[in-house]
Amino acid sequence: MPETKVSDDQSCGGSCDSCAISSCDASEQRSGESPEDFTKRQLLTRRMLGIKHKIVVLSGKGGVGKSTVAVNLAVSLSLAGKKVGLLDVDIHGPSIPTMLHLEGARAQASGTSILPVEMAGLKVMSLGFLLENKNSAIIWRGPMKMGVIEQLLRDVEWGELDYLIIDSPPGTGDEPLSVVQLIGKMDGAVMVTTPQEVAAADVRKSLDFCRQLNLPVIGIVENMSGFICPDCGKETAIFRGNNGQVMAEEAGVPFLGKIPIDPAIGVSCDSGTPFIYHYSKTETAKRFERVIKQILDREKN
To answer: Would you give the DSSP letter of residue 26?
Structure first.
């Protein structure tokens, strides 16, 4: 699918019929595009114009804590006074509802729009909110996954947002590819890895994914980087390696920081209580905050 190009001019009045922004890719119907598909593309463009910053959280490796980083990033930005949306595009294993204690929540319809679930001002959307049974297996091929991701971006009533954080499943397949192609211009990707080479090898593929799609890399977060003793404060390396920082230097992208292993993160994920909020005085939370600060500082540049 061709990239959707959206003008930097944020004066869009929300109606493509009266829009004077000729550089907007949604202003004209493409060759071979049906009127229905053209209308859908215009609606997607209008939705995205209401969102200032769009960030996807990626990792080539599963189990590195990518969703944990995405949730705490979204919550931290919300606590900083920003209007934030969190979109879970992990079709086969949506974990955001569990991590925010929203398993029983259901998305509601309003006309032709889908209303996101709201939690303390944070707007959240996940396929998990559309399933009758949370244990149902989603057995879909690529085109169906792309279709539902397009619907979540196009039909969800996000409103005006400062940030949309998108939690993508591991790898470089249908879900992250669909997100990047459908949205078009994005702020970039936050890459999550762990110190070991086995994780770094897969994350390097995600860096190449970003390069091939011209998606900026905001920076790399090294998760599970050491263990800080809650009694004495001593930090001990559990996994060998320093691959997050090494990768960042090799790729010439920012290294956002190291997040230690903290049992409280597991407790917070299982109980649906955002770690950054409920454990704000811990060293791990302070490191999360330093990661967030670097992302917020990008607004000043």
So the answer is: G
- Read off φ and ψ for residue 103, nearest 5 degrees: -60, -35
- All structural domains of the chain, each given as residue ranges with its CATH number in brackets, are 50-300 (3.40.50.300)
Cα–Cα nearest to 295, from 256, 245, 252: 256
Most confident of 91-105, 161-175, 262-276, 286-300: 161-175
The pLDDT of 159-173, averaged and rounded, is 94
Distance CA 90, CA 130 (A): 13
Classified as helix, coil or strand, 73 is helix
**Tens-place pLDDT, residues 201-215:** 899 999 999 999 999
E strand or H helix at 84:
strand 84-88
What is the predicted pLDDT for the residue at 87? Answer: 97
pTM, two decimal places: 0.87
In which element (H, E) is residue 78 found?
Answer: helix 66-79
Rg (CA), the chain: 19
